[in-house]
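Bit of a strange request maybe. I'm writing a small parser for structure token strings and I need a real example to test against, not something I typed by hand. Could someone generate the tokens for this chain?
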Amino acid sequence: MKLSVASSGHAEALKAILKSTRGAVREVFISSSSEFIGSIRSILGTDANYIEELAVQVEFAHKHGISVNVVANTTCLGGYHLTREGQNAVKWYLKKLEEVGVDSVTVTDPFFLEIVVENYDMEVAVSCLAHVDSVERALFFEELGAKYITLDTNINRDFETLEKIREATSCELKLIVNESCIWKCPFRYQHANLTSHFYGVDRKVGMLSDYYHDRCATMRVRNPTLITKSPWIRPEDLKEYEGIGIHFFKIAGRTQPVNWIVRALRAYEERSFDGNLLELLDVTRELRDLFYVPNKELEGAIEKWKHCSRNCRECSFCKELTMQVFRVWAHKGTEKERLLPLSEFRNLRK
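Reply from user aminoacidic:
Good idea to test on real output. This should exercise your parser:
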């Protein structure tokens, strides 16, 4: 097992991660500077000191035998990267990453992949936002020079497709283990583009709200079965993926607190977690504060998902599992605080 772990982007977070690992962490990943290529997540710290702060962290990580990956997975730059000014800025930035010793860069756009492969001594990882969900798409990126491919999380439980991609490619495949997005999310493309602009070179301000975030959270509160269907992987189930030749697992959560990142790291490194599964998932606080999902009670569900037809109209497994396992916090934060089975909680609301 090899782990790639999110870092908040400051030195103290990196130190906490490296202090906590028992040897499975091979890589930490940090958001790119929004001034040049950008990411779909914010960074802690300032763009003005980004390169200097990154250099310190790269040196520290390398002393502990850990690689550093910079996530530049913006899905839209509005064509800026195809202008002369944009290309000069991008190339200057990539050169700086190379000079401070960054080991790899995660990209979504094939354009950036080709630039890095042809001009810099850094490896390239393909982002999950490139939606690599087939043999054909995996081979496309591998032939362009990708060293790593983070597969589309929508196929995390599609073992037939995972096996075919593994058999057809020689590059390293990564799976994100703790993403909480809705399976086949209808907002995924639009939300990624929105956050790319919000944290990118032409960042937008003054939005009334993040419609996609709010709508997604509301849907899952109303229908928690959507959480069960999300493509997360339990720490206990990593062995199922290792059995088909995938050994590199990515723990998401760049915007989460350091103690949260450390908790998730320890759970996946130990391959076991006795608590609320939502404490490991990169999920909104609203869901974590509302639902309690006892991880140990999900034991064995992977066997069903491995052979799932992915036609929910013909199957009620996830719905029944949700009703059986999920608990809801009632009166949380008060003297009346208690956990109720989902069915009982719904009866109270009627």
